[in-house]
Protein 1
Amino acid sequence: MYHKNLPRRAGLTLKFEDGLDNLPRDYYSTKKLIEDLGLPVEKIDACKNGCMLYWKNAVDLEYCKFCEDARYKLTQERDSRHKKSPYAVLNYLPLTPRLHRLYASRATAEHMTWHATY
Ligand SMILES: [Zn+2]
């Protein structure tokens, strides 16, 4: 549910007349800001050659089923709890929460209607 003060609570107080001083200072701050706005990002491992995603039925595969390249980088196995690092990751931005957000505001909902109604 959209909250009218959510952008301010998330630190989004950017006004164009203020210049660029209020922009997030780095990638981490930008990522944190988007998370606080309630727009989820899903990370899905991918083949480094772009053949496939390790998703749904393929989530447990260790090698690409097309080019047979490894999913994870080779690391020194010092600790069995060490997290594996994939060669490539897809950042998936689910559409439904973004559409909900666009229709939650009257100002943006007007722009989401079919153009023939105008
Ligand atoms: Zn592949």
Protein 2
Amino acid sequence: MNFFEKLCFLYFMIIDHLENSHSFPNLSVNKGKDVSSTNPQSVNDFRAKRQKQNDAISYFNAIRLGHIPSLSKAITLIESTRPEHQKLASEIVNLCLPYSGNAMRIGITGVPGVGKSTFIETFGLSLVQQGKKIAILAIDPSSEKSKGSILGDKTRMEELVKSPFAFIRPSPSSGTLGGVARKTRESIILCEAAGFNMVLIETVGVGQSEIAVHSMTDFFLLLMLAGAGDELQGIKRGIMEMADGIAITKADGDNLLKAQAAVSEFSNALHLFPPTSSGWIPKVLACSSTENTGIQELGSNIELFFTRQTENGHLQIKRISQSKYWMHENIKALILDDLYRDPKISEQLITIEEQLINQKIDPFKASEIIFEMYRSK
Ligand SMILES: Nc1nc2c(ncn2[C@@H]2O[C@H](COP(=O)(O)OP(=O)(O)O)[C@@H](O)[C@H]2O)c(=O)[nH]1
Ligand SMILES: [Mg+2]
């Protein structure tokens, strides 16, 4: 370096940054953003997001802290069909399992239009006002074709959607009922680990899904319309027998008297059922979600159910028997799946079906052949 260069160097060192000098183009750097113009919250969110995407422990920690976006994403993993998502989801569920079971699990069923979503909105808001944290999962296996029903639900739960103490999640509607049930059960576990002390599960009254929801909830609430006739409501005796409570909806305006009559009608019908082993006698109440009448009373009845059933140990007994039920259901599902996936058996099935059509074999013999083939696999 000659004297002039040294002078230049010193000048730039003292007066300015070298990287900003045209004499040193190789040192030039991009100017970068002014720190004050970036939102620190989004930076943190972004970092949290990147970190959380990766491992089950981070998901678990975030869920335990009640971080809703993580809970939501974990449920999406549960719903995913991709094997790597399923593996991660299963790890998260296992981590959350010891922290689950603390919520009141309530199933809500009834035909489309009976007022389930509107009821959940009013009931849910009253629970939130009492300081409860509620999670709402909606199962609707029939909605695969009419996705509108879920959109409808969201608009019916307009106020609840805004509450930071309510989490509303339409459950996956595709796949087998067993699959949907498993996903819902796992979602319940995550919601409970996230600190929700009430889990409401809405299901549309189409038989099978009701049985599934009944087998994963503590209190099963059946919503009915007054004067619609049993056939119209598609209510089978079995569903009424499963109910821990019945609410006659839309008990307002011109419908009020009819609703009150329906209360005594259904109460009488319930009396004909044999008493349950838990000792709980289901009550029939009338309510209006739009007028907010009867909802409080129904809430108290549900509270009473939980107090009584916890005291006499039946809540625990019910949950254990539900766990056993799902284990057996899953064993059956796994075996069936394994059987039907076997290419040799599939081939044999085609042949046997032909024999069956031509009446060369009866269905029982046919199934025995298939079963033997499966056993000797
Ligand atoms: N008059 C009256 N209408 C209601 C009440 N609850 C719901 N509805 C109406 O009944 C229709 C169906 O309600 P919705 O909650 O979507 O029923 P869901 O299909 O069972 O979820 C909507 O038009 C609601 O506004 C109620 O308490 N009183
Ligand atoms: Mg609905």
